[in-house]
Amino acid sequence: MSIRVALRRLVFGGAAFAAGTALAYIDDPEQLPFDLSNVAQKALQQLDAERAHNVAIWAAVHGLLPIEKRADPPKLRTTIWGKHFSNPIGLAAGFDKDAQALEGLLGLGFGFVEIGSVTPLPQPGNDQPRAFRLPELKAVINRYGFNSQGLDVVRANLIAYRRSQLHRPANQPGPGPGLVGVNLGKNKLSEDAAADYCLGVSKLAPYADYLVINVSSPNTPGLRALQSRKELEKLVKKVKATRDGMPWSAAGPPPLLVKIAPDITDADKSDIAAVALKLGIDGLIVSNTTICRPPAVAEHPEGQQTGGLSGAPLRDMSTEVLRDMYRLTKGKLPIIGVGGVSSGADAYAKIRAGASLVELYTSLVYEGPSLLRRMKKELTALLQRDGFASVHDAIGADHAIPRR
């Protein structure tokens, strides 16, 4: 289907929706823009996955997304690495690869947005088509392969965003300005991965609230080999030395995290935990997409596409890896839980398993921007039900390990 036809359906569908349901928004008029945006989300699903994604980024860049004007519930506020998050729900890397749409995406009410993965040199990624929806399973398979405009373009975008925030009114309604994570990758043909990551740190660290070494995408040949103990230790030492050698204010450098795969063995988990604790990594992201194909996925017409699987089928696998990593690191490291998050209950399960923060992406593709509002309400209710004064108090609640 052409973009013109999809937009025509959006206009007429949105108008009908608004006319038929306007009375339902008298008590909460701010909900209407979110629900209209969900209508747009359904129209975009008439396009192929990558084209729909590009249209969504365009809409975010041009201020066409709804804006959250309500403050977040106090229970959702948390502080990690000395940084204040108005809520623990973030947008995972892969959506805004080049930091083009930060203002629009953070305006939806995310506590933070992680951009990237960013490669030193621009590269187109793998051949198209390279993203495939499995709507019956609320899943996506992608093999983008680190398509990136490169460090210089992303650096300019981050500088522009930071400058725009200097003029943000202090009393502007809403959850408050969200934080920005920067996810770093390597170029496909690079023979020196450490040099790529170090260059990324040197150029982008001053504009990041946290940094991520992504060694777990299944779509760049040889990348996951960097998760082995010897390779990971060498890599982290070099990247950490680059970060620590830069001039910083009294607040210090941004935290450095490592993003790992869900497909790792128990030995891999132990090795990663040992390296993280030994070298003083500031946190982990658990997890990236999986190369596994659960039975329901394997039977789907698109299930055998090459690439990383994300969405609902990944939820339990990624949560179990998160649980293991929290135990192996003795609750000492903040963990960002990713994979299959589509409800407040999903986020809460990851938090109780050991996540300090959670991220989503695929569920936004299927459910639209109002998902975030619903998740915050659900998560707040679950914290209230179980007697937690704040989301921070629930971190690792399923473990006997004292929370740090």
UniProtKB/TrEMBL annotation:
Transmembrane segments: none
InterPro entries, per database record: Aldolase_TIM (IPR013785), DHO_dehydrogenase (IPR050074), Dihydroorotate_DH_2 (IPR005719), Dihydroorotate_DH_cat (IPR005720), Dihydroorotate_DH_CS (IPR001295)
Cell wall biogenesis/degradation is among the record's keywords: no
Pathway annotation: Pyrimidine metabolism; UMP biosynthesis via de novo pathway; orotate from (S)-dihydroorotate (quinone route): step 1/1
EC number assigned by the record: 1.3.5.2
Catalytic EC class: oxidoreductase
PROSITE patterns for this protein: DHODEHASE_1 (PS00911), DHODEHASE_2 (PS00912)
Annotated compartments: Membrane; Mitochondrion inner membrane
Limits of the Dihydroorotate dehydrogenase catalytic domain: 76-383
Membrane disposition: Single-pass membrane protein
Keyword tags: Flavoprotein, FMN, Membrane, Mitochondrion, Mitochondrion inner membrane, Oxidoreductase, Signal
Cofactor note: Binds 1 FMN per subunit.
Major subcellular site: membrane
Cofactor(s) it depends on: FMN
Reactions performed catalytically: (S)-dihydroorotate + a quinone = orotate + a quinol
Stretch forming the signal peptide: 1-24
Gene3D superfamilies per the UniProt record, alphabetical: Aldolase class I
Family: Belongs to the dihydroorotate dehydrogenase family. Type 2 subfamily.
NCBIfam families with a match to the protein in the record: PRK05286.1-2 (NF003645), PRK05286.2-5 (NF003652), pyrD_sub2 (TIGR01036)
Protein name as catalogued: Dihydroorotate dehydrogenase (quinone), mitochondrial
Species of provenance: Coccomyxa subellipsoidea
